[in-house]
Amino acid sequence: MGNGRLRAPAFLVLFALSLSATLAGCSDSSDPLGVEVTSESGSYREISVAELEPLVGDADFVLINTHIPFEGDIPGTDLSLPFDDLAAHLGLLPDRDARIIVYCKGESMSTIAAETFVANGYTDVYKVDGGMVAWEEAGLILEK
């Protein structure tokens, strides 16, 4: 200690390292959710149940169940629209730049729905990977 250099107590060094690691791990809020999927109709994003769950109840998107016949809803669902007749229901949706998240029981119906929305000019479309099955497998409850 007599050499003229100051030494930080170990707890301060550990705190500083912990803080910098935490800040480095924070993601930019402008990062889009999910992964991009490209189809013949255009592109949409696929999100996980883990990404969707904290958003449920958020007014920043329209959550649409496209499964027929009805087998339940993820809480916060705004609309139930049949995947095979979406074009007839586009008037129920906000403008084509609105964020839309679609799901079905598994994935096939919501994939068709996502591609239909993109083909009709919707630009902010998301599909829930695994749908209601993945939701329940994550221990979450469907509204019946």
What can you see in these coordinates?
The structure is a single chain. With 144 residues, the chain is of the alpha/beta class. 27% of the residues lie in helices and 19% in strands. It is built from four helices and six strands. A six-stranded mixed beta sheet has the order 1-2-6-5-3-4. A hairpin with a 2-residue loop joins strand 1 and strand 2. It starts with 9 loop residues before the first helix and ends in a 7-residue tail after the last helix.
Q: What descriptors fit this protein?
A:
144 residues; alpha/beta; six-stranded mixed β-sheet; disordered N terminus
Number of helices: 4
Q: Which bin fits the share of residues in helices?
A: 25-40%
**Which shape, going by the Cα principal axes?**
globular
Strands side by side in the biggest sheet: 1-2-6-5-3-4
Order of helices and strands: HEEHEEEHEH
Computed Rg: 22 Å
| Mean pLDDT over all positions | 84
**Number of E-state strands:** 6
Helix-strand category: alpha/beta
**Biggest β-sheet: count, sense, barrel?**
6 strands, mixed
Q: Report the uncertain regions.
A: 3-29
Oligomer class: single chain
End-to-end distance, in Å? 70 Å
In what range is the share of β-strand residues? 15-25%
Show the helix and strand layout.
Blueprint: H1 10-25, E1 35-39, E2 42-47, H2 49-52, E3 62-65, E4 79-80, E5 99-103, H3 108-119, E6 124-128, H4 131-137
Parallel strand pairs: 2-6, 3-4, 3-5, 5-6
Antiparallel strand pairs: 1-2
